[in-house]
Amino acid sequence: MANVKISTTLGDIIVKLYDETPKHRDNFLKLAKEGYYNGTIFHRVIKDFMIQGGDPNSRDPQPGASYGTGGPDYTIEAEILPGLIHKRGALAAARQGDEVNPERRSSGSQFYIVWGKTYNQGQMGQLAKQMEMQAQQAIFNRLVAERRSQIMQLRRDRDREGLMELQNELESETYALYQKQGKAGLSAEQKEAYTTIGGTPHLDGQYTVFGEVIEGLDIVEKIQTAATLPGDRPKDDIVMNVSVIE
What we know:
single chain, 8-stranded antiparallel barrel, two-stranded antiparallel sheet
């Protein structure tokens, strides 16, 4: 297990990297040792949600410029694990959306630290239902992608009856697969974390969580409350240097 220090203009954040996500751990350590993050900014900050950085293009930031598309010329294989959740202080990898990145591969350098909010029991019940719907939608989308050529042919043939039959078939298959893999929901650990510590539960299972803040959560709080410009960039640049704690 390795720790890194994210030194910012508002204070220091100490992060523990998880051994359970070795690809992300090793990549983050490599970049930190190279000084890859030094001089970059937290380019995206959303109150009660998260703070994001790691874009090398944000080094020597220009007034009015927007950042968030930069990185090394590679992505990282997803290491999305059930027990690693988006509790407050979690370190996770940014990535492109499912429509262009169905394997949910992570950005080579961009990361975010979770803030989120705390939830009451009623809200947790609603969240559990939303997560069930998300899980079923993900299965359905995958099945649609697998049958794309058939769907396109039915559309070209203007075969509405065939399309309806295929949709019914895919919905039945979605339900069967959902039941087989086990219903999605919230674990006891998730319920405990999100009703006490807080976080962003709707991101669980979607992005790789590969560490957590062990010191400096108050600095994360300061950053996520910073005044921002359109596009969520802080008005006053919050610069970072990242180093490995040996």
